[in-house]
């Protein structure tokens, strides 16, 4: 019988078998690496507040929304460039707003909060990347959500009260502050929590990798109000969850 031709110290036939095996493993690994693209949900309504009708089909389309005029112009104070200015689109807001920026007219505060939250959400989604793994459960909005989400989501009106909770090491979850929740399901990705005289409507705004770790995160808005009062606030949170089911706050956006 003729001997095998050799490649170095490995017979050619054996070398071919090993090569095919390695290639097969490599292809399998690549195929198993899933892709979770950046997406937006019913909680993302930027297009509803613009002066012209627009259609969003791709992530790149979100950049256009930053420049389209809002349905109204809003006079504000406390910007980077001047004491008083007119904001009419997201691009101006994102480049000029400061922590002291407020509406000149009191009756425009609520509208301004909604607009600026949507602008910030647009910017976050635009700069997000696709994720390659996800630990997000399918039903993250449920009766036990307050016992799982970070304490940052708690509805606290008083700054002094918030400072007290921040210093208390035993307070970890939203439900540690706002107790006795009653939940009302608005849709698959919008719920309303009633508790301690306050109401929070949480909505899924979008998904994507917001912090560059290749793991899927979610963007959630909270519209806060109190029973029998005029208080209104809106907040935006980037959240993620680890393989153990523990939720973490990536970033909180206030307006």
Describe this entry's structure for a reader.
With 255 residues, this protein is of the alpha+beta class. The protein has two domains: 39-126, no CATH class; 145-253, no CATH class. 24% of the residues lie in helices and 26% in strands. The chain contains five helices and twelve strands. It has helices at 12-32, 61-65, 90-96, 109-126, 159-167; strands spanning 6-7, 10-11, 39-40, 74-77, 84-87, 102-103, 182-187, 190-195, 198-208, 217-226, 232-241, 247-253. The strands form three sheets. Strands 3, 7, 8, 9, 10, 11 and 12 form a seven-stranded antiparallel β-sheet that branches. α3 (90-96) crosses α4. The chain is globular, with a radius of gyration of 25 Å. It starts with 5 loop residues before the first strand and ends with a strand.
What attributes characterize this protein structure?
single chain; about 260 residues; alpha+beta; seven-stranded antiparallel sheet; 5 helices
Summarize the structure.
This protein is α+β, with helices and mostly antiparallel strands and 255 residues long. The chain has two domains: 39-126, no CATH class; 145-253, no CATH class.
The domain count comes to 2
Work out the radius of gyration.
25 Å
Q: What shape does the CA trace take?
A: globular
Biggest sheet overview: 7 strands, antiparallel
Low-confidence residue ranges: 1-31
* Total number of helices: 5
Percent in helix: 10-25%
The average pLDDT is 88
According to DSSP, the number of beta strands is: 12
Amino-to-carboxy terminus distance:
82 Å
Taken as a percent bin, the fraction of beta residues is 25-35%
């Amino acid at each position: 019988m003729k001997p095998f031709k050799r490649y170095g110290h490995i017979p050619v036939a054996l070398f071919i078998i090993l090569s095919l095996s390695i290639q097969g493993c490599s292809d399998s690994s690549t195929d198993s690496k899933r892709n979770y693209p950046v997406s937006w949900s019913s909680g993302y309504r930027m297009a509803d507040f613009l002066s012209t009708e627009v259609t969003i089909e791709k992530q790149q389309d979100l950049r256009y929304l930053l420049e389209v005029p809002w349905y109204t112009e809003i006079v504000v104070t406390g910007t980077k460039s001047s004491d008083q200015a007119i904001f009419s689109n997201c691009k101006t807001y994102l480049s000029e707003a400061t922590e002291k920026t407020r509406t000149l007219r009191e009756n425009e505060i609520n509208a301004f909060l909604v607009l600026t939250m949507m602008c910030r959400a647009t910017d976050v989604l635009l700069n997000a990347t696709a994720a390659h793994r996800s630990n997000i459960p399918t039903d993250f909005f449920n009766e036990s959500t307050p016992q799982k989400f970070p304490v940052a989501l708690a509805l606290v009106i008083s700054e002094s009260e918030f400072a007290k909770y921040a210093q208390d090491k035993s307070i970890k979850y939203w439900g540690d502050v706002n107790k006795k929740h009653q939940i009302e399901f608005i849709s698959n990705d919008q719920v309303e929590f009633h508790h301690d005289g306050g109401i929070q409507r949480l909505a899924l705004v979008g998904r994507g990798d917001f912090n560059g770790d290749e793991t899927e995160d979610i963007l959630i808005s909270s519209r806060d109000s109190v029973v029998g009062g005029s208080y209104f606030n809106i907040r935006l949170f980037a959240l993620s969850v680890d393989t153990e089911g523990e939720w973490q706050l990536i970033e909180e956006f206030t307006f």
